[in-house]
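Quick entry between incubations.
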Amino acid sequence: MNTDYINDLDWLAFCYAAGELNDAEVEQFEARLADDQAAREALARAVELTQTVAAAETQIGDLVTPAYRVQHDWRRRVSWMAVGGVASLLAALLWSAVAGPTWHNQTWRKTNSGSRSQLAMAWNQTRSDFVEVREAALWSAASDFDDEGTDLAADEVPEAPSWMTAAVFNVSVESPTNPSSAQGLEQE
Amino acid sequence: MTSPNEVPAGAQSQLDSSVVAALYMAHGEELRRFLLGILRDSQLTADVLQATFVKMVERGHETKEASRKAWLFRVAYHEAMAYRRREGVGGKVLRRIAADTPAWNTSGAAGSADEPLLRLESVQSVREALHDLPPEQRQVVRMRIYDEKTFATIAKELKIPLGTALGRMRAAMIKLRGRLSESPAKDNHNEH
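Done. Structure below.
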């Protein structure tokens, strides 16, 4: 079986597969396919070549992603990353320069203003109590002198008990029941 | 006394499944292409191919090993023609064959695990061969296979005789066929 014969048979098979044969030629070739193994294999080769050529024309371009597309995707990705990074930096700067200090001060004022006012109130109360105590002591002394006939000399001002003045003068109190319980007691 | 083509009496009643599988691996793809050339439809091709190998399972034990390939092709041919008569499916143009070209087809034939890779190498080899063709031959090939135009239409558009268009196509097919036969994929496939 020489090359020309094979080439002729391949061409005939291709024309049959291509639909280029007339009805009589089709019938003749199909009858040949019933017994001729060479014709069958030629038809198989014609189909293979047709499919391969069709694939070569249409599918090779899909096998490899074009370089410009890969580069384009990477550039697009980098640009979005850059935008996100710049935005984050700006947000951080804005926070540290404006919003942060303002927020911090407001928060500090909120947390400290209450305690400071409470401290002031406590101090005022303490001062009031101290004044009351002193006035009470003095009033007591004065009333003894005026109403109860206590014959006191004008220059005799009774001393306040130590327990009353202990908190003011920061002196330890001598307990009436346990004279020795207090430490550093200044004996009267 | 049995003839050389007859199977001796007492032989197995059914072909071993491993033998059928080996035949499918060896000839399935070529059979599929052959059937596609007749039926022009991939789905019908798959159906008839399956019916062919069912026959092989049922009656393959009656054949001798040396003639099993030809037996398969003969059975496939008769199954295809019977289907065409039954369904009234006539011959159709080549565009069906080109349109049924899957991306990396392994359907219809089991093939080897690297079958898609073989096809890639074949496609690349043919693509290179297309580039090496003379421009006038390349143009006719593209118009016939890719653009699906008949030779009469090609001759009319290129303002050349029909015989000239046919001649260019035939010369191109000889070169492309030669390149496809020489491709490494083909060599590896033939070794198995």
